[in-house]
Design goal:
Blueprint lengths: L5 E4 L17 E2 L31 E2 L5 E2 L6 E3 L9 H5 L10 H4 L18 E11 L20 E11 L2 E14 L7 E16 L4 E16 L6 E16 L6 E8 L1 E4 L28 E4 L2 E11 L16 E11 L5 E2 L1 H5 L2 E2 L7 E13 L3 E10 L9 E16 L3 E13 L2 E11 L1
Parallel strand pairs: 2-3, 5-14, 5-17
Antiparallel strand pairs: 1-13, 4-18, 6-7, 6-23, 7-8, 8-9, 9-10, 10-11, 11-12, 12-15, 13-14, 15-16, 16-19, 19-20, 20-21, 21-22, 22-23
Length: 442
C-alpha cells in the first residue's frame, strides 16, 4: 500500500474544515421540515480543519442534481462545519479562539498553551482535557440535505496534555471520531478519522502576546463493518498550524488569530483496484466503487475576541490559587473556510454519485457567553452559531448550544487542584449532540 502524498499551504483568506457525508439514493426536493431530532452530530476533524461525515442517508433531498461516478477525476472533501472541541468550547457556540487556553485551546488556537491562567504563578505547570461527544440522535450531520433515521451520527473523543516551563509551552492533542454510513449497503461502511496535533508556544511579556506554531497529522479511513473490516481507502496528511493571542495587561479583553493550512492527499491507500474497488471480494453481491483521485481538507482562518466583566480585570495575575468571583464572559469568533477545487461529499460517494461540496468560501459567525453563577462551584454557558452549507442547493442552519460545569472535588496533585464535570449539548435542524467532560477546574 502506498502512503498518500500531502501538500500544505496557508491560504490568504483561510478556510474552515469540516466533514462530508455518505448516502444512498437519488436526488429529490429538499426536506424543509423541522425535525425534532435536529441534526446529525459532529464529524471528524481532519488535519486541523477537516473532519468527516456522520452517516449516510436514504436519499438525496435538497442538493443540486447528482451525477454518477464514471472515472477517478474527482475529490472527496473532508469538512466539518459544526462546533467541535471540549465542553466549554462547544457549549459557547464554538467561540473560543481568544478564551480557551491550555490543552483544550490547542484544538482551535496554537498559541493557547502559552496563555497562562491568571492563577498560575509557578515556574512550571501542566494541564489536560478529556471530552466525549456523541451525535447519535442527529439525522443530517453535515447538513447536506439528506435525512436519515436517528442513531446515524458520529461519536468523537478528544484528549490532550499541555506543559509550561517559564515562558515556553508545548501541547499534544489527539482527536478521534467514527461514524456509520447508513446509506451504504453490501457491505455497510464506517468512516473513521484520527488527528494528532503538536504545538510549541511562547509568551512574549513585552508585547502581551502569546505565539504558537506546530503541525497536525491526520488519517482518514473508510472501512467495511463486520469481522474482516477491510479498508476501502485511506488518507494520511500533514498540515501546519499557527496562532496568536493578545492579552493587554490590566484590561479585560483578548483578541486572537488562528491559521490552519489545507491538506491535499494525492495518493490513496487502498488494497483494491481503484477503478473498481470491491470491499469484500468473497461476496459476489458487494457493491464496487470508483475511488477518488484526491482527498481535500480545506484550511481555515479564525478571528476571535472575548471580554470579561468581573470585580477585577481579566488580564492580571492574582495571588490566590483559584479566582472565585462572579463573572460574565462574552466571546465571538469568525471562522472562514476555503473552497475546494473539485470537492464532493462522501455520502454521495457511497451511493456512487457526485454531490458538489465546497465550491465557495464559507463564513461561520459564532457567539457565546459564560456566567460563573456560583463562584468556585458552578458555571453556566450558552451560545449560537451559523453553520453554512458546503453543498449546492442546501441552506445553512442556526445552532443553539448550552452547557454546565460543576466543581466535583478538591485534591492535592502537584499542588491543590479541583476536579470538574461538564455537560454540553448542541442542537439545530436535524442535528443534535450531547457531550461529557472531565478535567481540572480553573
Amino acid at each position: 500500500m502506498t502512503g498518500p502524498v500531502a501538500s500544505v499551504d496557508f491560504p490568504p483568506g483561510g478556510s474552515l474544515a469540516s466533514s462530508s457525508t455518505l448516502v444512498g439514493g437519488g436526488i429529490g426536493q429538499e426536506d424543509t421540515r423541522y425535525d425534532g431530532g435536529m441534526g446529525r452530530a459532529l464529524a471528524v476533524v481532519i488535519a486541523g480543519v477537516a473532519g468527516f461525515p456522520g452517516a449516510g442517508v436514504a436519499g438525496f433531498s435538497g442538493a443540486a442534481a447528482a451525477d454518477p461516478i464514471v472515472n477517478r477525476d474527482y475529490a472527496i472533501e473532508l469538512y466539518d462545519g459544526v462546533a467541535i472541541g471540549d465542553s466549554s468550547l462547544t457549549s459557547m457556540g464554538g467561540a473560543g479562539a481568544a478564551r480557551v487556553n491550555g490543552s483544550a485551546g490547542v484544538l482551535i488556537n496554537a498559541s493557547a498553551p502559552a496563555v497562562r491562567r491568571t492563577t498560575d504563578n509557578d515556574s512550571w505547570s501542566w494541564d489536560y482535557h478529556l471530552d466525549f461527544l456523541t451525535g447519535r440522535f442527529s439525522t443530517d450531520y453535515d447538513n447536506n440535505g439528506q435525512v436519515v433515521g436517528d442513531e446515524g451520527g458520529a461519536s468523537l473523543v478528544t484528549s490532550g496534555l499541555a506543559l509550561r516551563f517559564g515562558k515556553w509551552s508545548g501541547a499534544l492533542t489527539v482527536t478521534g471520531q467514527t461514524a456509520p454510513i447508513d446509506g451504504s449497503v453490501m457491505p455497510e461502511l464506517v468512516a473513521e478519522a484520527l488527528r494528532v496535533k503538536f504545538v510549541i508556544a511562547r509568551w512574549i511579556p513585552s508585547w502581551d502576546l502569546a505565539l504558537g506554531f506546530g503541525f497536525q497529522i491526520a488519517t482518514f479511513n473508510l472501512r467495511t463493518t463486520g469481522g474482516d473490516q477491510n479498508v476501502v481507502f485511506g488518507l494520511t496528511g500533514a498540515a501546519g498550524v499557527a496562532g496568536a493571542t493578545w492579552l493587554p495587561r490590566g484590561e479585560s479583553y483578548r483578541v486572537a488569530l488562528a491559521l490552519e493550512s489545507r491538506i491535499v492527499g494525492n495518493q490513496l491507500e487502498t488494497t483494491c483496484d481503484p477503478e473498481a474497488c470491491d470491499p469484500d471480494p468473497t461476496d459476489a453481491d458487494t457493491t464496487t466503487y470508483i475511488l477518488p483521485n484526491t482527498v481535500e481538507a480545506p484550511g481555515r482562518t479564525i478571528v476571535g475576541v472575548a471580554y470579561r466583566w468581573a470585580a477585577t480585570p481579566w488580564n492580571e495575575q492574582v495571588t490566590t490559587k483559584f479566582r472565585d468571583e462572579q463573572s460574565l464572559t462574552i466571546a465571538g469568533d469568525l471562522v472562514l473556510a476555503g473552497s475546494s477545487a473539485n470537492g464532493h461529499g462522501i455520502e454521495a460517494f457511497a451511493a456512487r454519485e457526485l454531490q458538489r461540496s465546497g465550491s465557495k468560501v464559507t463564513i461561520s459567525p459564532r457567539l457565546g457567553a459564560e456566567v460563573e453563577a456560583l463562584p468556585g462551584r458552578l458555571r453556566v454557558r450558552a451560545g449560537s452559531y451559523w453553520e453554512p452549507s458546503r453543498f449546492e442547493g442546501v441552506r445553512g442552519r442556526i445552532h443553539g448550544t448550552f452547557g454546565l460545569e460543576l466543581r466535583a472535588l478538591e485534591l492535592r496533585l502537584w499542588g491543590v487542584r479541583r476536579g470538574k464535570l461538564g455537560l454540553t449539548t448542541d442542537f439545530a435542524r436535524r442535528y443534535r449532540n450531547i457531550g461529557f467532560s472531565i478535567g481540572f477546574w480553573h
